Amino acid sequence: MAYENLLFEIRDGVGLITLNRPKALNALNSALLTELGHLLDEIAVNEEIRAVVITGSGDKAFAAGADISEMQPMTAMEGRKFSANGMNAITKLETIPQPTIAAVNGFALGGGCEVVLACDIRVASTKAKFGQPEVNLGVTPGFGATQRLPRLVGAGIAKELLLTGDVINAERAHQIGLANHVVEPEELLNKAFEIANKIASKGQLAVKMTKQGVNEGLNMDVERGLQYETELFALSFSTEDQKEGMAAFLEKRAAAFKGK
Ligand code: CO8
């Protein structure tokens, strides 16, 4: 499928998605969000792709939020549809089997920050800025921030960001656990790909089951989560990768995983 608001390429088993509306600071309109949902559906079933990096085009923004000019005249029901479309696409980032890494190159505000929150790992450039400024516009977040931000950084810090609309820099984002790493702008994609390539070199079934274990476990009580981990662990022994990974260790050689 051809995309008008996204760029996509595959580099050695790592998918690179670029949000591509630079004139509007990559603001997320309906067309972009629909395309993102379709692209993630394609990625989810593509076994060639073992990790995904997502970034914004241009040097200013990852995404400066949902598209305000599209949203301004909306009725409540139109707003609901807009939110559901975005929620659907952004939740796919969280639930596709492959790990996702946000490479935050500039403003990640509102819906842009919510895309970042749905990724598994976040790398920020020193130029990145994060915030949930929805209260400045008289609306609540609509693509997951009230739920994902407190789970990531704790309710107290999340509420301060959500209720004040404050924009924070990369260093503060790192301090609160919103960014895993902060690097110079020219190193951003290298760092994101370094992590993605490392993940891509591991046993892929184990990688996917581990992501699933964390995601599903966060919605369970600890006892059921631990039981779920036991089941995933058992399941990993049904794979060729488990036999190969452990044999390679014992034979003191690198494992040749097949993702089977
Ligand atoms: N939507 C639409 N266009 C935008 C957006 C946006 N979110 N952000 C920037 N743009 C456009 C500007 O209108 C401008 O267009 P033009 O050149 O045609 O005038 C162009 O991008 C460049 O922007 P600026 O001139 O404003 O650039 P500055 O460097 O002066 O400022 C900022 C950069 C600080 C990032 C500024 O653009 C800004 O504050 N943007 C809006 C940030 C914001 O409030 N984001 C949150 C939006 S709300 C949201 O995301 C809710 C998500 C949930 C939705 C739920 C559905 C119901």
From TrEMBL:
Keywords: Lyase. InterPro entries: ClpP/crotonase-like_dom_sf (IPR029045), Enoyl-CoA_hyd/isom_CS (IPR018376), Enoyl-CoA_hydra/iso (IPR001753), Enoyl-CoA_hydra_C (IPR014748). Belongs to the enoyl-CoA hydratase/isomerase family. This is Enoyl-CoA hydratase-related protein. It comes from Tumebacillus lacus. The lineage of its organism: Bacteria, Bacillati, Bacillota, Bacilli, Bacillales.
